[in-house]
Amino acid sequence: MKHVLEIEELTVTFRTENGDVRPVDDISFAVRPGETVCIVGESGSGKSVTSLAILNLLGKGGEIGPGRIRLAGEQLTEKSGAELRKARGKDAAMIFQEPMTTLNPVLTIGDQLREAIRLHAGLRGKAANAYAAELLREAGIARAEQVLKQYPHSLSGGMRQRVVIAMAIAGKPKLLIADEPTTALDVTVQAQILALLKRLRTDHDTAILLITHDLGVVAEMADRVLVMYAGQIVEETDVFTLFDRPLHPYTRGLMKAVPAISDGPDYRLEAIPGSVPDIGRLPQGCRFHPRCPAAADRCRGEMPTLTPAAPAHLVRCWLAGQSPAS
Ligand SMILES: Nc1ncnc2c1ncn2[C@@H]1O[C@H](COP(=O)(O)OP(=O)(O)OP(=O)(O)O)[C@@H](O)[C@H]1O
């Protein structure tokens, strides 16, 4: 299989009191087996809605269309609710920022893991128990038998996230979707969880779609990066090219907002002025132009398309490559 996930021209519409909004507007990308693709962008750029759409978890008022989502070679957009639930967990599983979104506070870790195992691995009884302990060890939990008897609240945030990862891998999914999985954790624990995700990728060839606003996490984890802004992909390339030769003024702005050790203590962070536009009130032309230091007349009137600026380097900017200083 060439791709685990293929998304073509995906648009998500939410019906709101003030009319329809499209937080995800015509995005296409694919993820290969064993590849880690990061989606990066500021808050409100559409990263989470993209990931929820993949597993049909948009909730009330959210609709996919037009667009196609193929997971493990199967067209998800044509599946029924029951078929989709089956695909979730077997082919793809989701890890959220806050582990308590997934964990039930009144059930033991063992109860919850065994349920995930019953659903996604078809095991019960002793076999399920043994597999539950094995999954916890795989997720880096040493005293697995003891943890199986505990409730979520008695565990640290890092341990809870390990449990969630253990549940996510119960069905040996081909794709893990992780939405800011380490944002709620302190730095040391964050590094441990990222190392765990890397190990799962290496040991099982699991593809990872990682959503983050943190370029440090991108540098650590990504093979390929999608930069999102106001519901669109504005740049896509491999991680080395992105850091070496970012072409979109937005990507450059994000990079300037990250301190390097060599900047020293007096360095002033250059955050991008302004904020991501309200999805119900998008500017004409390029959606980034009101914040862009290089915006020209064409940018104010005409929406740029996502086009190759170099092999395997896509960028949505009329001026890409023209002005290295922008
Ligand atoms: N249920 C909903 N109804 C209407 N609009 C929504 C809904 N869910 C999300 N949105 C809007 O979609 C846009 C994108 O949201 P999304 O959560 O995907 O952004 P994000 O890039 O993941 O940011 P964050 O990191 O803050 O989650 C936002 O403007 C948000 O208000």
SSE layout:
Layout: E1 5-16, E2 19-31, E3 36-40, H1 47-54, E4 62-64, E5 68-71, E6 74-75, H2 81-90, E7 92-95, H3 109-121, H4 125-138, H5 144-148, H6 157-168, E8 175-179, H7 187-204, E9 207-212, H8 215-221, E10 224-229, E11 232-238, H9 239-244, H10 249-256, H11 297-301, E12 307-310, E13 313-315
Parallel strand pairs: 3-9, 3-10, 7-8, 8-9
Antiparallel strand pairs: 1-2, 1-4, 1-5, 5-6, 10-11, 11-13, 12-13
Helix pairs in contact: 3-4, 3-6, 4-6
This protein binds adenosine-5'-triphosphate (ATP).
Description:
The model has no long low-confidence stretch (mean pLDDT 90). This protein is 33% helix and 23% strand. α3 crosses α4, α3 packs parallel to α6 and α4 crosses α6. The chain is an alpha/beta fold and 326 residues long. The chain folds into 2 domains: 229 residues, P-loop containing nucleotide triphosphate hydrolases (Rossmann fold); 72 residues, no CATH class. An 8-stranded mixed β-sheet has the order 7-8-9-3-10-11-13-12, sandwiched between helices. A hairpin with a 2-residue loop joins β10 and β11. The protein is globular. The protein is built from 11 helices and 13 strands. It binds adenosine-5'-triphosphate (ATP). The site of adenosine-5'-triphosphate (ATP) has 16 residues, from β1, β2 and α1. Belongs to the ABC transporter superfamily. It is found in: Cell membrane.
